[in-house]
Design a protein that fits this description.
Largest sheet: 5 strands, antiparallel
Number of strands: 9
Strand content: 35-45%
Order of helices and strands: HEEEEEEEEE
Shape: elongated
Strand order of the largest sheet: 3-2-1-4-5
Number of helices: 1
Helix content: 10-25%
Distance between the termini: 73 Å
Radius of gyration: 19 Å
Structural class: mainly beta
């Protein structure tokens, strides 16, 4: 009984989510070291964060998973979307309807 209570106490002390840094390939270092975590994302988007990227790792009874990376302020307005790579490629979908690909602006198609 005492051992069970101690295990429950330790589990409650660990956060449900934490920020971890990618230290190489699919290895992430946070409170613990994580190897080969599943990378969760919306369907149709595949990614592998670069070394030194800060990621968000969640833990559940079923195991741990990386749910994304901390990207910092990119100057986006609410409702806008940006896809980018560590090599500099960028696709930016703006609220105005414009699409910006690597700095080249494509105007929104006017209806009517």
């Amino acid at each position: 009984m005492w051992l069970s209570q101690q295990m429950i106490s330790v589990q409650k002390q660990q956060p449900a989510a934490q920020v971890a840094e990618v230290t190489g390939g699919s290895v992430m270092q946070g409170i613990n070291e994580y190897r080969g975590l599943p990378l969760l994302s919306p369907w149709g988007i595949a990614y592998l964060p670069p070394n030194s990227a800060r990621t968000v790792v969640i833990g559940t009874d079923a195991g741990s998973a990386c749910i994304g990376a901390v990207c910092g302020d990119r100057g986006l307005a609410p409702g806008e979307l940006m896809l980018f790579s560590s090599g500099g490629a960028c696709v930016y979908l703006k609220n105005s309807g414009e699409v910006v690909i690597n700095g080249q602006v494509f105007a929104a198609k006017k209806e009517g």
